[in-house]
Specification:
The protein has helices spanning about 115-120, 135-140, 185-195, 280-285, 300-315, 330, 340-345, 350, 395-400; strands at about 5-15, 15-20, 25-30, 40-50, 70-80, 85-100, 105-115, 130-135, 165-170, 175-180, 200-210, 215-220, 235, 245, 250-255, 265-270, 275-280, 290-295, 320-330, 355-360, 370-380, 385-395. With about 425 residues, it is α+β, with helices and mostly antiparallel strands. Strands 1, 2, 3, 4, 5, 6, 7, 13, 14, 15, 19, 20, 21 and 22 form a 14-stranded mixed β-sheet that branches. A three-stranded mixed β-sheet has the order 9-12-11, covered by helices on one side. A three-stranded mixed β-sheet has the order 17-16-18. A hairpin with a 4-residue loop joins strand 6 (about 85-100) and strand 7 (about 105-115). It is globular, with a radius of gyration of 23 Å. It starts with a strand and ends in a 19-residue tail after the last helix.
Length: about 425
């Protein structure tokens, strides 16, 4: 039987949740995480409304719900030999409600976004930070400490100060500094101006716990590489798979010029220090590809210099590499039982994104190739028939750091990682 996949879909807040799994016809979730940015997840589901139970003011079970004060929980299990293992595919906030009704046939489309995209639309906050850890600053920016000010995050039925935001560290923390108030034009703009350019680093929203509620977001520092406790390398092959190997159906390869960077300007929060760096060989070949970060919360000039150098050294060349990979739950039904834990991690929002993947494939008319890529995005589309998983990929040698003696990220003369 291989690995079986099942989902549970709930909506709700602190007042209670509703299991609507049986009413959902299909759904998709797209999660993306880019360097020097806050990652995001979006999606939608189509719901059967044949009895009018979702029609607003229609007298049905869900007719009086305040949809925009509701969270969405898409969770599931992968089962091998009758033993299920759970995963959290997506947790977020309803952002749109569309009723499609012609009088005889009716469906509802619920769209949703992650909680930090929702909360990040808030007004900018006091951005003065005095040499504190980035995780502390992020928590302070998103949380609300007095009822005299409006809540930043969707409270899901809590008071304006009762929710919490938890930063889960996937690497060491790092220090930021700003003596400038009101950086950015919104809450997320504050963080993407002040914090994520440092290193550069990145953030990825993950789960919601309906306790306070508690919103979780992951943080990676300048290494761009998960620590050993949080890192899993996924092994994909286009031939017969065995053991922990995962199959794939299609693989797209190509060039990605969008991140080409060979001239960088870094400015600290007060505007008093400007650091520039450029890669002469790259500008000579491609012309300038300029990147500028102003008002960054850099605590030291040395950090500004290392950040600028990281950009031009890592991204000064355009590399041919895998761009995306697609596989399905039906393929996993024929995979070995040992691959189930890896499949489960790819379905879990906390363990799928920003992970290395070794991919072995054979281009037409060419010998077999094995490359190490990085998973920067994931789209999951599910119907009663099957689940289709598409992984968006970038080159590991640009986006990951060398780890001594690591089988995939530390092989000299094979993966020349930054």
């Amino acid at each position: 039987m291989g690995v079986q996949t099942a989902y549970t879909i709930e909506i709700g807040n602190l007042s209670g949740t509703y299991d609507i799994t049986d009413q959902v016809q299909s759904f998709y979730v797209n999660s993306q995480c880019n360097l020097a940015e806050i990652g995001s997840s979006t999606g939608a589901m189509t719901i059967k409304n044949f009895t009018g139970s979702f029609t607003p003011d229609g007298g049905g079970t869900y007719g009086d719900i305040d949809w925009f004060n509701q969270a969405v929980f898409i969770d599931g299990t992968t089962t091998v030999s009758g033993v299920p293992t759970s995963f959290n595919l997506f947790h977020g906030i309803i952002s749109k409600f569309e009723l499609n009704d012609n009088g005889t046939f009716s469906t509802v489309t619920l769209s949703f976004i992650d909680a930090f995209t929702a909360g990040g639309r808030s007004d900018t906050v006091n951005s003065v930070t005095n040499f504190e850890d980035a995780s502390v600053a992020i928590t302070n920016f998103y949380e609300n400490f007095t009822t005299a000010t409006p809540a930043q995050m969707p409270t899901l039925g809590a008071t304006s100060i009762a929710y919490v935001c938890t930063v889960d560290l996937l690497t060491d923390d790092f220090e930021i500094f700003s003596n400038t108030a009101d950086v950015g034009t919104s809450l997320n703009a504050t963080i993407q101006t002040l914090i994520t350019p440092v290193g550069p680093s990145l953030l990825m929203p993950t789960t919601i716990a309906l306790t306070s509620p508690d919103f979780h977001i992951q943080l990676l520092n300048f290494t761009m590489t998960r620590n050993a406790a949080n890192r899993t390398t996924f092994i994909f092959k286009d031939d017969i798979v065995s053991g922990t190997e995962l199959p794939f159906e299609t693989l797209r390869t190509g060039y990605d010029e969008s991140m080409l960077t060979n001239n960088v300007e870094i400015i600290n929060a007060s505007g008093s220090i400007t650091i520039t760096d450029f890669k002469n060989a790259s500008t000579t070949k491609y012309g300038q590809r300029f990147r500028s970060y102003g008002q960054g919360g850099f605590s030291l000039t040395e950090v500004m210099q290392s950040t600028a150098s990281s950009w031009v050294e890592r991204f000064g060349d355009v590399i041919f590499a895998p761009i995306s990979l697609t596989f399905t739950s039906k393929q996993m039904e024929s995979a070995a039982n040992a691959s189930a834990p890896f499949y489960n991690k790819l379905l879990d929002i906390s363990t799928a994104i920003w992970q290395p993947a070794e991919i072995t494939y054979t281009p037409t008319g060419c010998p077999e190739q094995t490359v190490v890529a990085l998973i920067k995005g994931r789209t999951v589309t599910a119907t009663p028939d099957q689940t289709i998983i598409t992984l968006d990929l970038v080159t590991a040698n640009q986006y990951q750091s060398f780890i001594l003696n690591d089988q995939y990220l530390g092989v000299l003369n094979k993966n020349r990682l930054a």
